[in-house]
Amino acid sequence: MKKSSSIKTRITIWYTTLMFVLIVVVLALVGGLSYQLSKDSIEKNVILGVTQVAEKLSKRQPDVFEIVESQEEYKNVSIYDPEGKYIAGKYLYDAENIPFEEGVPRKETIDGKEYIIYDARMPGPPGMRGGLWIRGMESVNSSMILGRSAIIIVLVLIPLILILTAFGGYYITKKAFRPVNSIIKTANDISAQKDITRRIEIAPDAKEDELNQLSVTLNRMLDKIENLIKQEKQFTSDASHELRTPISVILAQGEYLLEIAQDDKERELAQSIVDKANQVSKLVSRLLLLARIDQNRQKFNKEKVDISVLADIAVDSMKELAAQKNITLSANVPDDTFAEADESLLLSAITNLISNGIKYGKESGYVSVSAVNTGEYTEITVKDNGIGIDKAHIDKIWDRFYRIDDVRNDEYGSNGLGLSMVKSIVELHGGTISAKSKVGEGTVFTIRLNN
Predict the structure, then answer these.
(1) CA distance 361 to 355
(2) Does 442 map to a domain?
């Protein structure tokens, strides 16, 4: 399973990593350039010092040795005889072991330290054969301490820089993605509350960027969806009203034909008309109820209702249907189990659940109604031992016109609106309904109403 991370987090990690890489690359370039510049500067200083001492020797100044010994500007210059023995200037014992090489600046290591060395040869004073060696030496390490210290300081500050970069970047990204959070919140609210009138909030001073345009576009889309839903609900309501009269006429004519039927065939045809007319009448009634609930036009009279009495009425009304399959109906609700509800609507919901249990129940099975009042809520349970509902369908049974099996539903005369209507009624009461089922063992519907 992939771990989820927000875009803000991924962007922050990306540019923090990029910042770290850039700092390392810049430090490497600065360090290398600093080293090379320091080395070039040292070479120039060493060559200059050797050149100045060589000029003084060429002029035969008698005090040149004293000058080299005493003056600070020649502190890195020393003079040797033709055999390489020290005469004057800075003395390093190990430097005598390094061969002289005229006119070539080079790097040598003495006692673990790096030095730039430059040698020049000059004629010696009268009577000295072979001339003199002038050697300039300067430590590379000491000259680069400042540069290296600066690099070390920056390296120490890298974690702090990265932390500040990450926090600052995350804050900026979070602020930039605020419209996205508003879009997500609105979408979740619409999904949870089923309130299609909600819109994405756009601040009056919001910048005209891509996210702002996305919010505006989504709001326009929601406007169109809301209008389409309103049109659909209005059509359902209007169609249901218009169909009630012709269906009533068909039902009346079918019942009349049933009365005057001359033989079994006519009686069978008339009965088929009556059954189908009743089925369509029930469908229209459910559509009309759903349309009224959707449009907030359904009458809702909330009062204190005795659930034990309501359960008995619902069970009694379904006994004839249950007898056709030899299904046992029972109501096990303690006396004085009350709930705040619309009696007619709640009775319709419970009756539909019982009817559902009978339709999909087994021969000689059972459907039971029970209830309990906890003080905080009243819980009504309708249980059967019927054919059950597969796990793949359990979350879809509340959708309008959803049918698990067209053949099976036609057999039982289902139109896919019963459970959808029950859910709408329960939600109209501010309650919830859930279903648990196992194929071959039955189904349990639970209504929970807040007191």
Answers:
(1) 10
(2) yes
Residue type at 402? Y
How many whole angstroms separate alpha carbon 99 and alpha carbon 27? 36
Asked whether the CA dihedral 408, 414, 415, 419 is positive or negative, the reply is negative
Give tens-digit pLDDT for 98-121. Answer: 888 888 888 888 777 788 889 888
CATH number at 413 reads 3.30.565.10
State pLDDT tens for residues 294-336: 777 777 788 899 999 999 999 999 999 899 999 999 999 998 8
Alpha carbon distance 112, 114 (integer Å): 7
Structural domain including 394 reads 303-450
The count of structural domains within the chain is 3
